[in-house]
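hiii so um. not sure if this is the right channel but i have a protein structure encoded as tokens and i wanna go backwards to a sequence. like what aa goes where. can anyone help
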């Protein structure tokens, strides 16, 4: 198709993308079928009036020589505009492609093609076009040849190609529009009534009842119907013994003759009338009738068809037989149906969603193939009670003849499609045979297979183990001996644990394992079984990260410099102490000569001397902040020291964000002092600069400004608090939405957990904060945030899969999680450690 220029690969994003199903044909080639059902719902159909059959047939008066031309893949000979081509994008294993030629399955394609053909042949005498069929005729051979030459010349100039195998030339008798045309005129096609004409003599009371139900629908054509059928109706009496004798046979023959062979028995087809295909399937045959609504409002038959099922088709599930019935009927009636909107009536209610709302991959394998073949038709499908489908029902129970060559091609096409699906399953032939063998041994699977063939009973009469399959009965079928739901194998209970382990190979996580299972296998509660397996798998539990929990916003301080965060960072091989005010986001940076607690305390004292002593200081668990000297410093200066959970920097989010901001400034600006000054005088998202919020004035910088702007000005605290709280609320909403947050289950003392940072098991000792726990392991006691602890003894609730960390943007308040004042025990640190100040003679 790509070589022919019908399709091409597309890289850019597209609004529409349809699914593709490749089908292997009998000759070994592959046909690409694209399901454009959803696109069709948004396509505005081109309303082109098809020529009325009466008008077409009237033109044939006096014609004696006929030829019929068939366009070769007619739709593909019409190019698509670029803006239309992108809408036909479909997905393949090799990327996305789009059509450059009119694809089959587009709802507006038949009308557009008919209009183009009518325009192409406009003005040529002796030609009539109906879709991809063109009839050329003449009163004699000379006139016919002239008209044919004109038509072929016009077709050649337009670049249209014909299908040689389907063309017929210089015929004296030809079939067109369901009529037989010859030099004597137009005659009804005998095939349209042969299905009724050859209905066999009833052998049971049930067959009599079905025959009478059919003729009652045609009663307006039969004078004195009640009198004529009296002898047959007597057989329906409850206590009447079955006796089919000469009176019944005479009545049967007379009613058939009167109802089906009289002139008005078949209505003349009209392309503009409401059209209905009524189809039904019995256990051994198919029957269908093409109906049209007449001007007086009556619905009359246009054509009848029936046939028996092949040996292979008799083994289909009932839902597959019903789908086959109207697929076969529509293809046999295709001359009447292509290019028009029509409705399908079925008495099998589960078929309605399968051919309307459900996705292609959700259908049983054979039904998938039938729906693909129906893509060229534009139809709606509805359910009608069986009592209103008497004609099709009667025909299906009295089928005429055996499948013809066209019917056998449909069966072969379906078989080839099934073979393709089965070959695509990730299992060897031996493995499939093993599953088939176990399905037959499994009592539940064996019962389901029986119901598939003979029909499902009422749900209330089923056992508990079978009830869960009842709602899926329309999706279950038997394919090559295997019980399947859509294109997925139903695994019997004995093999489920083995298949579960195969699904879990590679420990890919819950979502990936479920996706892998959906490709080829199914049983009730499969998703829950996969989830339970992963929850019990130690490797999966210890390797997964926890999903982010809902953000806990730290409250906005009441006063400037009331609450500060501090952290150490390294820049160009030099370590710095950073302190940031939670109220104003004012940043102080001090260079550290030594990585000791004493040096940190010294720089803190210097900064506190300028801005005052805060009430609360938040830091991480670095050795400089957990040293005794820093604890003594907090007691001496009378501030409360709070440490965040180890390996959970979000607990001190303001300091973490300030570090990122400072590093960014230092990288961009040659003078670090001017860089810091620029930050301090730049308004934040609340409208005030850090210096205004902390000092009540704007600092003078290199940027020119007026004296008025530098006068002291205190912000309105109530307005500021409202702005900050609103920003924190929005930030929490964004974070929670972006990360798909979920509360992790609370841990209890004694719970066994996995410390993800230390790669060892531990036991919860106590909860020391809202999301912080003290955990004891063989190597010591550690404090960790809940997100760093994976439960091995599962509490109420489930763990989650990995979600990335949060990031903050410039001038947004960095929101911290609530922390605890409980002093943590000393632990091994990833930082480079130095001796405490009192043991470092070089420190001052």
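sure thing!! here u go:
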């Amino acid at each position: 198709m790509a070589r022919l220029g019908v399709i091409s690969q597309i890289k850019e994003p597209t609004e529409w993308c349809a699914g593709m199903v490749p089908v292997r044909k009998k000759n070994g080639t592959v046909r690409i079928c694209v399901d454009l059902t959803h696109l069709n719902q948004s396509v505005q159909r081109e309303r082109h009036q098809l020529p009325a059959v009466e008008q077409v047939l009237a033109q044939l008066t006096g014609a004696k020589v006929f030829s019929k031309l068939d366009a070769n893949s007619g739709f593909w000979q019409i190019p698509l505009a670029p803006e239309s081509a992108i809408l036909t994008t479909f997905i393949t294993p090799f990327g996305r492609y789009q059509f450059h030629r009119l694809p089959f399955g587009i709802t507006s394609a038949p009308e557009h093609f008919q209009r183009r053909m009518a325009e192409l042949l406009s003005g040529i005498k002796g030609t009539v076009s109906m879709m991809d069929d063109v009839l050329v005729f003449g009163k004699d051979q000379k006139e016919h040849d002239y008209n044919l030459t004109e038509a072929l010349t016009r077709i050649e100039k337009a670049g249209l190609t014909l299908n040689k195998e389907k063309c017929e030339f210089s015929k004296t008798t030809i079939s067109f529009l369901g009529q037989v045309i010859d030099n004597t005129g137009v005659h009804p096609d005998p095939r349209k009534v042969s299905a009724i004409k050859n209905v066999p003599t009833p052998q049971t009371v049930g067959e009599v009842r079905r025959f009478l139900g059919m003729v009652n629908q045609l009663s307006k054509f039969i004078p004195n119907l009640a009198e004529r059928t009296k002898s047959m109706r007597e057989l329906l009496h409850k206590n009447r013994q079955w006796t089919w004798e000469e009176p019944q046979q005479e009545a049967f023959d007379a009613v058939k003759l009167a109802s089906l062979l009289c002139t008005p028995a078949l209505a003349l087809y009209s392309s503009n009338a409401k059209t209905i295909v009524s189809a039904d399937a019995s256990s051994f045959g198919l029957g269908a009738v093409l109906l049209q609504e007449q001007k007086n409002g009556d619905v009359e038959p246009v054509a009848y068809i029936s046939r028996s099922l092949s040996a292979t088709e008799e083994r289909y599930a009932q839902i597959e037989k019903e789908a086959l019935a109207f697929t076969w009927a529509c293809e046999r009636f295709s001359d009447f149906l292509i290019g028009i909107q029509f409705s399908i009536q079925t008495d099998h209610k589960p078929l309605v969603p399968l051919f309307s709302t459900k996705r292609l991959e959700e259908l049983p394998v054979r039904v998938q193939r039938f729906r693909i073949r129906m893509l060229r038709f534009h139809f709606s499908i509805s359910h009608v009670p069986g009592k209103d489908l008497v004609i099709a029902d009667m025909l299906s129970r009295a089928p005429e003849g055996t499948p013809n060559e066209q019917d056998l091609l449909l069966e072969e096409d379906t078989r080839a499609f099934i073979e393709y699906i089965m070959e695509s399953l990730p299992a060897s032939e031996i493995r499939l045979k093993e599953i088939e063998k176990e399905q037959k041994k499994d009592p539940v699977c064996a019962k389901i297979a029986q119901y598939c063939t003979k029909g499902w009973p009422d749900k209330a009469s089923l056992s508990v183990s079978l009830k869960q399959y009842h709602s899926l009965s329309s999706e279950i079928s038997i394919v090559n001996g295997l019980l399947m739901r859509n294109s997925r194998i139903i695994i019997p209970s004995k093999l489920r644990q083995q298949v579960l382990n195969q699904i879990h190979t590679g420990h890919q996580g819950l979502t990936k394992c479920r996706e892998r299972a959906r490709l080829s296998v199914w049983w009730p509660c499969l998703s829950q079984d996969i989830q339970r397996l992963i929850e019990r798998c130690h490797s999966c539990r210890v390797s997964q990260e926890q999903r982010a929990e809902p953000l806990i916003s730290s409250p906005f301080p009441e006063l400037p410099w009331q609450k500060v965060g501090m952290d150490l960072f390294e820049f160009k091989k030099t370590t710095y102490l950073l302190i940031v005010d939670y109220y104003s986001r004012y940043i102080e940076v001090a260079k550290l000569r030594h990585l000791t607690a004493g040096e940190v305390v010294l720089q803190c004292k210097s900064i506190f001397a300028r801005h005052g002593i805060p009430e609360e200081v938040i830091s991480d668990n670095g050795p400089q902040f957990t040293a005794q000297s820093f604890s003594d410093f907090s007691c001496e200066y009378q501030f409360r020291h709070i440490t965040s959970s180890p390996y959970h920097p979000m607990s001190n989010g303001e300091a973490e964000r300030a570090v990122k901001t400072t590093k960014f400034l230092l990288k961009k600006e040659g003078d670090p002092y001017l860089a810091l000054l620029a930050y301090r005088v730049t308004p934040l998202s609340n409208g005030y600069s850090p210096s205004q919020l902390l000092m009540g004035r704007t600092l003078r910088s290199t940027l020119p400004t007026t004296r008025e702007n530098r006068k002291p000005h205190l912000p309105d605290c109530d307005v500021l608090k409202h702005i900050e709280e609103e920003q924190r609320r929005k930030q929490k909403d964004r974070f929670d939405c972006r990360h798909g947050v979920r509360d992790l289950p609370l841990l209890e003392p004694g719970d066994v957990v996995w410390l993800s940072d230390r790669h060892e098991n531990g036991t919860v000792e106590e909860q020391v904060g809202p999301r912080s726990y003290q955990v004891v392991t063989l190597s010591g006691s550690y404090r960790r945030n809940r997100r760093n602890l994976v439960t091995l003894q599962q509490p109420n609730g489930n763990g989650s899969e990995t979600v990335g960390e949060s990031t903050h943007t410039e001038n947004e308040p960095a929101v911290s999680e609530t922390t605890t004042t409980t002093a943590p025990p000393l632990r091994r640190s990833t930082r480079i450690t130095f001796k405490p100040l009192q043991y470092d003679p070089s420190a001052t």
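oh and The radius of gyration is 41 Å.
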